[in-house]
Amino acid sequence: MSTQVSQTEPTAVGAVDAARTALVEEVGSADVGGHLGHVVEGDAVVTYLFACKRAGYVGWHWSVTLVELPGEAPTIDELVLIPGDEAIVAPAWVPYRERIKPGDLSPGDLLPVSDEDPRLVPTYAFGDDPLDADAKAQVRQVAQDLGLGRVRTLSVEGRDAAAQRWYAGQAGPAAPIAQSAPHHCHSCGFLLRISGSLGETFGVCANGDANDDGRVVSMDHGCGAHSEVRLAKKHEPQPLPEPVVDELTLDLLETF
């Protein structure tokens, strides 16, 4: 917050002492610094600014607003602490809906989607991906006439946003586990292919031993649980020696 201090003396600038006295009575003398100036708010209304010496409030100012009527003692109108140009203030408010991140939802939590969410469009207007063009036309007609099927489906914006999010995250090629993988997911036998426009870039991992089991992964993602991974010979288990049959009997011992 920027504080603009007037250098023009109001009608009764002598009220600085009255402002300081009222401030000291309210917050104590230890927290009040020197007079910084004043702001003429309007006819007979003046705000006096004092430095704040309170711990943790560097750059803040005490603001004391007085009503100064001619011939009468100044009247205290407001006393507040305000941030200056160098004050440390809380970050800008972010609505709760925009602060939610993947993984924040707990069982029973509800996260409604706005009717105007750009990620979704009416199914009758766009079809139901990954149907082909003819099938999309049929879906649009059926949904329009009978109201059947999903009410909304992914828009182009919603699909692209999901693809960018997945590709840039832990399911993409830049993930540390993918950087050290011997092979990519596109050649893994555990990859389940998906239909539609995202099928060329993504699939679903079906390896129960892999970190990404049951998750969408990019074709150029990878991990050490690839179906074709093989251990180097030095890491393979050593073969067991041939078994030795003990043929020594009591009768044979007596001959020694």
Automatic annotation (TrEMBL):
Pfam family, one: DUF3027
Protein name per UniProt: DUF3027 domain-containing protein
